[in-house]
Write a structure and sequence with these properties.
Shape of chain A: flat
Number of strands of chain B: 0
Low-confidence stretches of chain A: none
Number of helices of chain B: 5
Structural class of chain B: mainly alpha
Largest sheet of chain B: none
Helix content of chain B: over 70%
Low-confidence stretches of chain B: none
Oligomer: heterodimer
Number of helices of chain A: 13
Order of helices and strands of chain B: HHHHH
Distance between the termini of chain A: 43 Å
Mean pLDDT of chain B: 87
Number of domains of chain A: 2
Shape of chain B: extended
Helix content of chain A: over 70%
Radius of gyration of chain A: 21 Å
Structural class of chain A: mainly alpha
């Protein structure tokens, strides 16, 4: 069904995003619990989620803070984890760039995995949408997910303080990240990036101040970018040789 | 607090809030409709798949609950979670598999 009004665009975005509550809910809950385990009170945990609004960066910062990492390295590492939102921002710009500045500022704050994933598909499928309709759809995709994330964080923080250390909750964070990683490996280049990052990360743990994460991340990114070029050239060569044969 | 002060926590919260917003606003706010250089986009595409595994790998090989000693059950649960995510292409199934595996570890440890 094509979107006809700004209001219906908002509601469409809201409805499309409801299934994502099943992902952001548990992640928010987990962040709250781990934050409480790390010694944050409910207000601190909630402010963290509210102000930063970027799950993976929050988890990374929390993990590194507990390992006595220098603050600058915590900041750089957590922001590096979140560099992908810069890519989302760049790819949404052709669709939302004409909106008023205050709307673009709000949209920037709300640029997360699920709002980006839903919106970019919608904007590509329905090129006749106007900029206000696109903006309304984009805000709609966060209509329940953003409040859900905050509520889940607070709930987790309230519960987390009561969970004993012996439950081994520390291991839930790597599991949650692994669950996110599997579906991200869409192309051979993604796998190269992932493999090189892991292969670098293990010996790089010997580096001081948890610098290994940044080194391994950059190595993985460069490997992924190079692999993409290599696979593109290889497939271009294959196509060219097929054409000459025909 | 586990080795960090409230001051460092607030520095991190404020720094991350400003930094994350900056990353998100950079293009949509300042760039207008201009195209991004291809090499930059090509590297940004691989940030998540590089940095997240780099963070996770040491935590899986030297898990915190065993005090950093490599443990086969932990490795197995991690591999299961990753494999389910990769094969189903669905974060939710992977999370469920991870939760199941975590419960198994919990009862195994008694």
């Amino acid at each position: 069904m094509a979107i006809t009004t700004t209001k219906s665009a908002f509601w469409k975005g809201l409805r499309d995003s409801v299934p994502f509550l099943l992902v952001s809910g548990p992640f928010g809950l987990l962040f709250g619990v781990l934050a409480a385990e790390a010694g944050l009170n409910v207000l601190e945990a909630w402010t963290f989620s509210m102000a930063v609004f970027a799950g993976s960066a929050q988890f990374t910062a929390l993990q590194l803070l507990q390992e006595n990492t220098p603050l600058l390295i915590v900041l750089v590492s957590a922001l590096a984890v979140n560099l992908r939102v810069a890519m989302y921002s760049a790819s949404l710009t052709p669709y939302l760039g004409d909106a008023p500045l205050w709307q673009r500022a709000c949209a920037a704050y709300l640029t997360v995995d699920q709002s980006y994933a839903l919106s970019i598909v919608k904007f590509e499928d329905e090129p006749q949408m106007t900029t206000p309709q696109r903006m309304a759809y984009f805000f709609g995709t966060n209509g329940v997910v953003a409040p859900g994330w905050m509520i889940a964080t607070v709930t987790g923080a309230l519960v987390g303080a009561q969970i004993p250390d012996s439950w081994g909750l520390d291991f839930v964070l790597p599991l949650a990240f692994l669950a996110m990683t599997g579906p991200m490996l869409r192309t051979p280049a993604h796998m190269v990036a992932c493999f090189v990052a892991i292969a670098t990360a293990l010996p790089a743990t010997l580096l001081p101040y948890n610098l290994g994460l940044i080194v391994a991340g950059v190595a993985g990114m460069m490997a992924g970018a190079q692999a993409e070029l290599w696979f593109e050239r290889a497939s271009a060569r294959r196509n060219a040789s097929q054409e000459t044969r025909q | 607090m586990n080795g960090f002060t409230p001051l460092s926590l607030w520095i991190i919260i404020i720094g991350l809030a400003l930094g994350s917003f900056g990353l998100r606003f950079a293009f949509i706010g300042f760039m207008g409709g201009r195209a991004m250089p291809a090499w930059l986009m090509r590297h940004l595409r691989y940030t998540a798949v590089a940095i997240i595994p780099a963070l996770v790998a040491p935590l899986v090989i030297w898990p915190a609950p065993t005090g950093g000693e490599t443990s086969l059950p932990h490795l197995a649960v991690a591999a299961l979670t990753f494999a389910v995510g990769y094969l189903t292409r669905n974060v939710l199934w992977a999370l469920l598999a991870g939760a199941g595996g975590f419960l198994a570890l919990f009862f195994l440890a008694g």
